[in-house]
Write a structure and sequence with these properties.
mainly beta, Pectate Lyase C-like, 6 helices, 27 strands, binds 2-acetamido-2-deoxy-beta-D-glucopyranose
Length: about 350
């Protein structure tokens, strides 16, 4: 889109107020990849001009709970994104605690959540639903709908934002599953993002996802779902009082290309936790080059009380170190991987990143 078109859009903004319609004659399809530019806004420029279009011609919507932006809520900003948008929309969230339940529907792709670089822990989207809460029909909400933030669309990315669910649970009481972030859209990247909860914190539901330099905190099954995801350079922190588990990857067939791969992550915190529990016969979780503190229980892995899964679950470790990395007490059916066996899980190829990430 050229500059004159951008001008037209600015004028349109004055004529009809927010939201700005995209320039109809010059719509280009959102690029089918995520790059660093998608996680940046030039805050200075955005502030100075009345334009809501940044230097890369993507639209910027500012969320400021104090009223200085385009919306005081995050959901308000999402509501301004046109349905079936063809271009990236950057939602720049100023520091503050946004107490709201947020959902990005599947027909709003190419959305970025961007927080101020130095304020990840102060830019928080927080809600407090748990699985046993009632929905509008009087039934129980269930785990999936407990999410504080739900992303159903593709090509989502986020940086410098905290996703939180404040429900507290002491080791797995029923009905207290409380998701902070649920991602079911395909091709998503999370960079320097924090996800905070207790039981069932991060529902990494479906699709291919990249978590880079993120901080994920919880107690029981706090990363769970059916996705194919790479977690690189992340801090995975247990808040379990006694026992808990990090990953509950769900896979029912040996042909599924899904799995959770943790590479160069730090695993620490409190309690004694499993690296993973087998949800479904073919659950797949791999830890490579990770620092495992003594929070990891010596047995390492759980078959979820279904011994049959011991034959088919794919649970492996490659070159991990730290007090929790001693594999001598591990369940005999987990694997110590060779480099060749670990290789497919070590980089972005595992999530077909070469097709949709340009980093
Ligand atoms: C981010 O926050 C810092 C500290 O409050 C502030 O100085 C800065 O202007 C903000 N914006 C950007 C783009 O860094
Ligand atoms: C591993 O992660 C640490 C910190 O998270 C980072 O400083 C380091 O560069 C990473 N190493 C590799 C080989 O990626
Ligand atoms: C876990 O590791 C992080 C990052 O290295 C560190 O800041 C934190 O203090 C550690 N927490 C515990 C409980 O060891
Ligand atoms: C898992 O394996 C068991 C034992 O073969 C089988 O009975 C069960 O149907 C399998 N579950 C699924 C979901 O395929
Ligand atoms: C895709 C694209 O146009 N990226 C540009 C965004 O703006 C920065 C700063 O002007 C450029 O360096 C990028 O090349």
């Amino acid at each position: 889109m050229d500059y004159s078109c951008a001008l037209v859009m600015v004028v349109a903004a004055f004529l009809c107020g927010f939201p700005v319609g995209l320039c109809e004659t010059d719509v280009v399809y959102g690029k089918n990849f995520i790059g660093w530019d998608d996680m940046k806004v030039d805050e200075h420029k955005t502030r100075l001009s009345t334009s809501t279009v940044d230097y890369n011609q993507s639209r910027v919507i500012i969320v400021d709970k104090n009223g200085g932006g385009d919306s005081v809520t995050v959901q308000g900003a999402i509501d301004m994104v046109p349905e079936n948008n063809k271009q990236r929309v950057k939602i720049y969230i100023l520091p503050g605690i946004y107490r709201e339940k947020v959902i990005i529907p599947s027909f709003k792709p190419y959305i970025s959540f961007i927080g101020n670089e130095s304020q990840m822990s102060n830019t928080i989207i927080s809600w407090k639903n748990k699985a046993s809460d009632r929905d509008s029909n009087g039934g129980s909400l269930g785990t999936y709908k407990s999410a504080s933030v739900t992303i159903e669309s593709d090509y989502f990315c986020a940086t410098e934002v905290t996703f939180e669910n404040t429900v507290i649970t002491s080791s797995g009481e029923s009905g207290r599953q409380a998701v902070a972030l649920r991602i079911s859209g395909d091709k998503a990247m999370f960079y320097k993002v924090k996800v905070v909860g207790a039981q069932d914190t991060l529902l990494d539901e479906t699709g291919s996802h990249y978590f880079y330099q993120c901080h994920i905190q919880g107690s029981v099954d706090f990363i769970f779902g059916k996705s194919r995801s790479l977690y690189r350079d992340c801090l995975i922190q247990s808040t379990a009082k006694k026992c808990g588990a990090i990953a509950a990857h769900h896979r029912d067939s040996p042909d599924d290309n899904t799995g959770f791969s943790f590479v160069n992550c730090t695993i620490n915190g409190t309690g004694k936790i499993y690296l993973g529990r087998a949800w479904g016969n073919y659950s797949r979780t791999i830890y490579s080059n990770c620092y495992l503190d003594n929070v990891v229980t010596p047995a390492g892995w759980s078959d979820w009380n279904d011994p049959f899964r011991q034959k088919t679950a794919v649970f492996g470790e490659f070159q991990c170190w730290g007090a929790g990395a001693d594999t001598s007490g591990r369940v005999p059916w987990s694997k110590k991987l060779s480099y060749q066996e670990a290789k497919p899980f070590l980089d972005m190829k595992f999530i077909d990143g070469e097709q949709w990430l340009r980093l």
